[in-house]
Structure formats: structure tokens, C-alpha cells
Amino acid sequence: MTTTPFASAVLVAAGRSTRMGTQADPKPFLPLLDRPILQYSLQAFHRAATVAEIVIVGQEEHFARIESLCGPYADRVTRIVAGGEQRFHSVLAGCQHTSAQSEVLLIHDAARPLIQVRDIDRVAEAAREKGAALLATPVTDSVHRSMDGRKVFEPVDRSNLWSAQTPQGFQRRAFLKVLQEAERLGSLPTDDVALYERMVGAVELVPGPPENLKITHPADLAIAEALLRYTP
Questions:
Q1: What is the model's pTM?
Q2: Mean pLDDT for each 10-residue chunk of the chain (232 residues)?
Q3: Please, what are the domains in the chain?
Q4: Which of 89, 94, 113, 207 could, after both became Cys, cross-link 10 (CB 3.0–4.6 A)?
């Protein structure tokens, strides 16, 4: 693996965390064991050999708090930028503020604090070589389709199904064009890979661990804490 950093990481931390219930703080600031959720992703991307810079997308009213969390990672955090009304706008804002010298953009949900350094580098290398790459894990549960949310309609073959994770990596120049064209057309998907697939083509699959969960509901915090305590 190369030791020369070539990627810009965009940490998306601008959501309103509505599914976390009545929490006073957005997810990036919620405590996970001994520190806020955002710091876990910061640390992992700071350690990654492929990452030259980190851009954080957050709510403008929380800029000071985000800056205070950067601490030992500040040498690679080049910008803290304001997110938009939808995730697409936040991703676009973050990508537009990355260095033109970067070859690859790595888009990561800050609500996935258990991302491993090795997986960041694997996605970055795959995106550099193939154009785009997705960290994902095979679907292991039985899957059924329901037309009304009350009755099972039919089973779905899971043998070729994968659950998307982040980071998702893209060659910088091509992905910026995709984002700008999507904005012009008013096509604002919530998934970056789906947008790239529709407008450019296939995305390289990088198998990832199921432990890279996204903190969405309060119970996810307890699961993440257990994984951090007991994973060697």
C-alpha cells in the first residue's frame, strides 16, 4: 500500500438526529464510552495512510464544538463547513471544499464511529484504481417483500444482496461532476453510490465488517459500547 496520502475525507456530521428521540445533542456529540462519537471517526481517518486531509460538514451553530473536538487531529482537518437541508447538499458542500490536489474523495457518515483504518485505506485504494468503491457487508438475514407493511408478499433472494456502509470512495474530479450535474437536474438521492451508478457506472465492492454499524437509534449506542469494550 502506498505511504503517500492521496485522499480527502469528508465526514458528514450535519444531521438533526431525529431518530435518536429526545436527545438534546446531535449524534456527533453524544458520548460513546469516554468521548463523543465524532472523535472516533476523526481518529480513524487521521491514522489512515491514504488520507491527506479531513473536511467536516456540520451544523453552523456547532462549529465551535466541532473545532474543540479536533484536538490532536487538527493537523489534517482543513475545513469545517456548513451542511445543507438534505444530505446531498452536505456532501456537495464538503466535497467542494476539498483540495484540488486530492485524487480520491472518501464520504463517511460520522455516525459510524467503529470504522477501521484498514477499511478506510482499502476503499481509498479501490476508488483510486476503479473509479469508485463501496464498503459493504453481505445481507445475512432472511428478507421478505411486503406491499402494505402488514403482510409478507414474497421472499427475496439474499445471495446477491449487500448492505451499504461508509466510507464510499470516488475519484475526485469525476464525482464532483456527478454532484454538480445532479444538483442541476434536481436529482438529490440520499446514497452517493446510487447516484454514481446511475450517472457513471459500476462501483467496486469492498467487503467490510458488520461491526461498522451506524448509530441511528438509542439502542445502537449500547451495541457500539459493547463492541468497543469486548472487541480485541
A1: 0.93
A2: 84 74 74 94 97 97 94 95 92 96 97 97 98 95 81 81 95 96 85 92 95 93 93 66
A3: 7-135+163-230 (3.90.550.10)
A4: 94
